[in-house]
Amino acid sequence: MANLLKDFEVDGKNPSLEARQRWRSSVSIVKNRARRFRMISNLEKLAENEKKRSDIQEKIRVAFYVQKAALQFIDAGAHREYKLTDEVKQAGFHVEPDELASMVRNHNTRSLTNSGGAEGIAQKLSVSLTEGVRSSELHIREKIYGANRYAEKPARSFLMFVWEALQDVTLIILMVCAVVSIGVGVATEGFPKGMYDGTGILLSIILVVMVTAISDYKQSLQFRDLDREKKKINIQVTRDGNRQHVSIDDLVVGDVVHLSIGDRVSADGIFISGYNLEIDESSLSGESEPSHVNKEKPFLLSGTKVQNGSAKMLVTTVGMRTEWGKLMETLSEGGEDETPLQVKLNGVATIIGKIGLGFAVLTFVVLCIRFVVTKATSGSITQWSSEDALTLLDYFAIAVTIIVVAVPEGLPLAVTLSLAFAMKQLMRDRALVRHLAACETMGSSTSICTDKTGTLTTNHMVVNKVWICENVKERQEENFQLNLSDQVKNILIQAIFQNTGSEVVKDKEGKTQILGSPTERAILEFGLLLGGDVETQRREHKILKIEPFNSDKKKMSVLTSHSGGSVRAFCKGASEIVLKMCEKVVDSNGKSVPLSEEKMANISEVIESFASEALRTLCLVYTDLDEAPSGDLPDGGYTLVAVVGIKDPVRPGVKEAVKICQDAGITVRMVTGDNLSTAKAIARECGILTADGVAIEGSYFRDLPPHEMRKILPKIQVMARSLPLDKHTLVNNLRKIGEVVAVTGDGTNDAPALHESDIGLAMGVAGTEVAKENADVIIMDDNFATIVNVARWGRAVYINIQKFVQFQLTVNVVALIINFVSACFTGSAPLTAVQLLWVNMIMDTLGALALATEPPNEGLMKRQPIGRTASFITKAMWRNIIGQSIYQLIVLGILNFAGKQILNLNGPDSTAVLNTIIFNSFVFCQVFNEVNSREIEKINVFKGMFKSWVFVAVMIATVGFQVIIVEFLGAFASTVPLSWQHWLLCILIGSLSMILAVGLKCIPVELNRHHDGYELLPSGPSESA
To answer: Where are the transmembrane segments (predicted)?
Structure first.
């Protein structure tokens, strides 16, 4: 099978165009192309959209590099004049929407200057740059300037899914046959008897179409909900004088937006104020070099990303008036990338479809030959009637219905159904799957490289210990008794409040709120406990320059000017890095005294002791300068003020989640910026660092030669003091040695590692928009236990599809062979077109609903991950398929050829009764085999069955409708009512397949392997039946 499917292989992430084109061209037998490929990306449409995007990017590039230069030579009088409309005047505004849009889009600095800069535009928009927009004005601003929403493809209605289900070629042929059958039947047998066969086929088709459409429509609703969740992005704005989070969809023109590293610019706007703002405009212009935005270059465009710095922006243009809005219109079409399992099952469906087509043609040919031979031997070869035409039409309908059953259209569609169900459940469990393939690939993950802060820990940080003036002080509940002199306290408060990327604001209730990263919040909270006041500090000292925290440098610096004209630089960051920059230390009198080697050693011991208690350590330092430096702030000559130890408790349940991963054969590796001692202490507390594991620093790892790196790689469990590049290198090398790697990330610099990994997991709370856009899954609660849940569902998807494939292939084999053999030997098919359509619905739509939506069981996380090259249809599955098929063929064959004698059936309706028994027995064999398929290897197939309400509902519906078909719809389905003894016989024949399944599962086919491609762990718990 593997050789036959070689053209149906694609990578789970970023598949090549060649591979995607190859498998599409290899799919040759498709009943309903519109439905089969509905969830698959349209390569032609994608190419068309790519051209549109390129055109828009080129247009923007021209605006950036040509128009900006040309504007310098254009006379102001030549500019287009925008006349103020009455609607804008009555609303109290003094600038037209198109004028604002044109100014920002064309980077027209002259027009901005003439309008009075950002302040002048704010006046025209009737907004205060300090207070922001008033909530009462939101509606009128949306009405005049538009909403921040983009044009989207309208949702498909239920009737569109009905129409799509009707595109099935085989169903169309059967409808034609049914109509002809009704016409010929009424002409030969009269009304209403002549209508029954054709009407039965039409009713069956309507039932199949409606069930298919309902299933597909519900899937589309699930994907629509997921799509809505993906687009939920919040941003900080100032409104009514307060800082608050709002959805980007609710942004209006005039809003004052606060931007920081990793944010996406969600509307066009003008720079108000900020520091070191660098914007990545590659998504719009295609240019990789960041653009520096400041007072001289004040324009910001929607869709770009903040690469460095922070700023306040005045929103000028929203929604479809922005270039990003036009670009988003092209992104809304094209479809989702296919998953490896979908592609593989398209291959399986193609192979089986070809076999089924061959059987259908053979069956039709054999039936026709036998019919002609029978007529020839009876001497009526030259006499043809409408009844003969009806018989041949019936043969043709049976052949077409065999194709309906034989082509397992439901296989690739079952993957979509299972993934949609899993993604819906994961969304409830606080994990948002952005790419379908990620959920599938997570089931194969062998390594999780996780951050510490916020993922393994609670991300609620507090300063727990402080070293200052050669004394260590510990937090006492909500207070610190530092007993410092006023001079020392003043320097410490300056070092805290001057050098921060966070802000202290008042919320709507007037309560103090600290905005910023958890580390920054902890230090500011510490400063507030000391009696510090942010406003006082900001008034007394003017900030001249900020060097924001950088993951590479692991420090943040700020340059301030004091009232006397002096200049002071503050720095804080990783203790061992910042400590090396110090030459002095503050004594108890607030004086700077030389930092001797002995004191340096003592401070290093304090840092080590803090770290061994799992505290994150930071040094706060400062230096006085004669004048403000023109370049970077100095890297030496500082005075040490304090060392703070920040506590970030481990999340409840993390240790248990890590243990589950280890039992499942998944190695958990912690990658952190903390020092080695802190990292090891946390890793031991989480159960990540084991006796035979290795904990190393990023600097040591990145300098290793390739052969040594490969040797140590499998043993690495902790990487401390790592840079984003180290995480990327670790992920890249783990993949090279065959690992399937999931990696977490929250910062902008994590984007390369998230993109490189097999599964990128971004944090929903602490993660930046840049990280989220490069991720495959967003962990909404930043909890490691949620990551484990994604892996569990990933494995469940894979196994559920295996169960469904085993069930469907068994039905395929039996239905094909029984009809073909019967046609060869008796000249008739025991299963009619209507019956085969019902069987097709049982094994296709209903079977997928029952088996592909089963929730994960406990045993999934006690086995090894699925290998990249593992065979999808395992030997255990082939054993079950062949065993059940042989049993069903023998039983149905005996009934078909000797049923009348065995059951003592006599009378004119004996053939009808026998065929009904065969049909009923066949259906009950599938019902019980569907229960068997719940476990491919284990004997106990009932465990957890009643927890899956979908499975139970499908079973009840199938049995209930089978009773109705047999007892009440005989005229349409070619059945007759059965006695209770015959019903009992059919149920007994079906139930014997369960006893057979127990015997089959005792036959060993793979040494120490399980049905789902997993291997038992050597130390894993014993599996019970």
So the answer is: 169-188, 194-214, 351-373, 393-422, 809-829, 881-899, 949-974, 980-1000
